[in-house]
Specification:
A hairpin with a 5-residue loop joins strand 1 and strand 2. The protein is about 65% helix and about 0% strand. The termini are far apart. The protein has a two-stranded antiparallel sheet with strand order 1-2.
Length: about 725
Amino acid sequence: MDLEALRHANLSALNTAISDWATVVKSLTRLEKQSRDDMKAKADKANWAGVNATVSREFISRTAGEFSDALAQATSIHNILKDTYGELVGYRDKLRQALDNGFEKDKLSVYGEAGGGFRVVAAVHPEPPGTKEKAEALRDRVQSLLDSATTSDSTAARVLKAMAEQADYGFSGAKYADRDSAAEALEKADDMAKLAKDAKKMSPEELAEFQRTMAKYKNDELFAARFASELGAKETLQFWNDLAESHAGARGEELKQLQSIQKNLSMTLATATLSDADGMQEWKKKVLDESTSLFRANPSDPLRPNSAIGYQVMSSLMHHGKYDAEFLNAYGKQLLKMDMAPGGLPGMGTNDLWKTGNVTDLVFGKGNGSDPLVGYMKALSHSPEAALKTFDDKKVFEHMLESTRYTDRDGSVAHALEAAVTGYGDGEKATDVRPHSKAQVALMQAVMHAVAQPGTGADLVNKATGESFGDMAAAYMPEISRSISGEGAESIFWSNSQRPEGLDKLDVTRFLYETARDPMGRAAIIVGESVYTASSLEAHIAQPELFDGRTEDAVKAISTNAGIIEGIVGHSVADAEIAGDLKSEKDVNDALKSKGDTIKSVLSSGVGVGTLALVGTESAAAMPAALIGGFFGGIAGMAVDRLIDAQQLDGALDQALYDSGGKLNDAHESANVQTQESATKAVEKHGSKELTEDATRNMIRVAIQEGWNASDTMLEGAHARPAA
């Protein structure tokens, strides 16, 4: 910025822009709240079918997200403009004051010159003593103010341009409290990209700085996009390959440092892929181009031949963070084509495909990163949208599930499948209700069918996959209940699913039986059934008009269903004991507590989000608003407490609930008590004109027994079982 521009700067237009943006922020704050609390909330609860259930709901959800991003970006722009205006006004006023003081006190004049320069001359002749020194001091003061104003103006322009480039359409969602923080993010990105140009030359101090910076800025959109695009795609892959090679065999604190860098670099790159900036578009394209390129840390050293191809390096940086869905699908399409290329039965040939060569340990954890499908499946587990699209291809689904028999990718595949069928990313806390789409239900049915296959399906359930299969079952309790109960129970077993009758009863039976063999899988089923049963009982007792019939009939149907599901689990455990492969009692109890704690955190996260998802939004929409917050989650929370705290209950056996998985009678009695307590607590809490405590307990006792007996009959016809 030159002298005359700052001295005569009229910043009224900038001030007007700040006022305009303040108005925009105020309006967007109101609109964002309305879109989130009104429009999106109603769409989540709406009982839509057909196109509305998919297109309209998704459109409204994305629109609400755009309002949120727009607010974030508008707030940042307002803050940056306000900071810049304040600084420029300050520099202009200080410049004018310096010029006035120079003339009045020291008789010095300052003139601007063509090209942006300026000169300081004496305003009187002869020159007073000390004029030269005073002129130099004024010159330095003026230049300092001009430099500061230039920095203020240029960094604002740089930051605003970077923010605008993040999204081709819509808004980026980048949010900054002031201009300096945004400018610092860009500066740090440049510094880290420069450091990463040669991993082999990074000093311990530089590596520590890289670690700290990635941890701080991993979710910063401007930093992430700038870092990745400045470093370059091929250079990113080379950096990680070289760093892994340089620190091969790391132990102790060094190992922890490398694991931290891998995690935060993964999250940084994931954030970067969300950017639509030209540099990131090129970065994503180049990653795909380099996917089969060979990367070696020391190409000229024959004694260190370690090498990896692009897929292996990139996938090792996909274990954390939510990558752009389009990028994941494009990357996966190429990778899966290569993984599925070997002949033979589905999934079999991939075992040897990625074991060739001498690959550096790229992940500093379990395995060494040689199988790129592990990292890719990890990425899908954090991106439900991309996961569902990937597994929607039946050949891909069959190949990946079958490949778990021959590789170590079983856990990552199971997590990706869980994300696809539930709509929640791995580790994501439930904050809203996500109805199951037709595609999700179809995929869940495919998973159940695969696990239900006689002779081969049981092998798919193991320590790495059992918990995910159990979580899937818990999330699909409404559909499972509809499947078991059959047609006519729609108004008893509420569901917000687009295809509530989409599961096959035989497959459901066998899937629950096989999954229950794993402690974590069993725990998820038990907790999921308990929550769904408790919240369903509470819904019908609190709001009898939900079912066009007697409340006791609804309670009986729910209790019978609980008896069937708990019976399948109980018989699975008893059969495992007979077969001699039952897990220890400690494993069972630890699993139950772990799963119960997780579900309780969901139940306490808001207005009964967890139970609302299980009961279904149809019932919530039919209830008075005052009741929704009042009872959703309450009785279900008590049910979970009884499971994980081994609470002693009146009428229960003299032992903790589920304290001995191998005792069939104990499991039966625990299911009976659990269901009775949920119902009577709901009656006590809400009152009921139809139900009394004694009659309700007896009715549930009979219904549980009927369901338990039915489960035995169902299993006899569905599954070969060991003889006692």
